[in-house]
Task: structure prediction
Amino acid sequence: SGLYLADQYECQILDSFGLKGETNECGGIYKVARPNVNMCLPPLSWQTYDVDFKAARFNAAGKKIASAIATIRHNGVLIHNKIKLVVTPGGSQNDEKPGAIFFQNHGNPVRFRNIWILEQF
Result:
């Protein structure tokens, strides 16, 4: 399962308790970056994510002038600090323009609660 930012950058949210913390495990940016540390709690425990995301920026001519970046805390611990994002497989968008946030699953029961989206200026 994953959390997609702007429908094109995936942070993994699957159960990876006790594993190494690879790009395809909990907290990894899928196929791009490992989390600094695997902070996955045991199965059936609530997990928390705090994500600060800034979309890629473009000039008036449409040329990208800044990459999307994210800072991610998993269960209160910093696992990615201002990481420059690149498009990951699986989203339906790959132009780095603003897009939707969505949660992916692979058929296993998943529950989400207390989802907040705050726009900062």
